[in-house]
Specification:
The complex is a heterodimer of chains A (about 200) and B (about 150).
Chain A lengths: L9 H5 L2 H12 L5 E2 H8 L3 H13 L3 E6 L2 E6 L6 H12 L1 H9 L6 E7 H5 L8 E7 L3 H9 L2 H4 L3 E6 L1 H9 L3 H8 L3 E4 L2 H7 L2
Parallel strand pairs in A: 5-6
Antiparallel strand pairs in A: 1-3, 2-3, 4-5, 4-7
Chain B lengths: L2 H6 L3 E3 L4 H17 L7 H22 L2 E3 L4 H7 L1 H4 L4 H19 L7 H25 L7
Antiparallel strand pairs in B: 1-2
The chains are: A alpha+beta (about 200), B mainly alpha (about 150).
Amino acid sequence: MDTDDSGHTISTALFGKTQRGLLSLFFTRPEESFYLRQIVRTARVGQGAAQRELARWVEAGLLVRTRRGNQVYYQANATSPVFHELRALAVKTTGVADVIREALLGLADRISVAFVHGSVARGTEKAGSDVDLVVVGAVGFGEVVAAVGRTHDTIGREVNPTVYPVREFRAKLRAGHHFVTSLMESPKIYLLGSEHELERLGT
Amino acid sequence: MSLSDWARNGWLVEHKTSPQEIKDLLGVVVRDLRDCAAKGLSDDWRLAIAYNAALHCATAALAASGYRASRDAHHFRVIQSLSLTLGVDNTLIKQLDAFRKKRNVSDYERAGAVSTAEVEEIAKLAGALRKRLEDWLRQNHPGLLPK
């Protein structure tokens, strides 16, 4: 996990609350644009702080500001030289991964390893892409669905979980089951546990 | 919202059922609950069969209430209607809906992304739904049950 002894995550160590909120919103949903009220509500940030931060980000070329009718919209600037880096950072820390990790924390003592795979982990997701999630542990599909169901409003994506008991995951890995084997090779963002735990399941 | 509100929205169509239709639907449920436990089938396919049992429970409850779902978003509506027919709670409906999505995904994009544990979970859920449906029919629509 990302946490150290002081309880900081990568994102809280690097950024303040408003910056985290904006990074997550704009760089995990880079194909969408948002107006101030949406930003304040979705990113759960203060209006004054958001306005100041937005002005700075626009000035630095991180965001694009456009006016449509009476409304001013902000969107991630895909031509910024650090667009791809910020996007990767957002997804791995403040974005999808953090939100889902937090949602799973109530089940964490029964989860051996949980990770995101598929297009979000590869960084090739589109506006409508689901978040593909694998959870290995002593939890049920229904429990995981209930836990991550609340994340939809924040991340704006459906989470599509596959849940294995440890024993089944091991058995399928040994039997060379196509999907489970391909998971081992594919890009992953670890939410709970790490590569180490996953590899131990294979031995 | 009530079933008649849903019909006004175009989500449901009025439908006159019969004891024979209910019997046929229950027959599918029983068959699918049995078949989803068959040895030698893939987990993807077993999940689809168990899901079908749950879907037919919901379809039967809707038919007994005088409606069927219109074609648009058919499975989604049938599952959501369980709150208005059998009084199924939101948590359970969300689980069924997640299985619906999982079935779509495993059909079209990600063969194999289904665990045996998940199949057992949806089979158990469908079995409980069948029991609930039969109790509900006995109490609310005894005339539709096979003599």
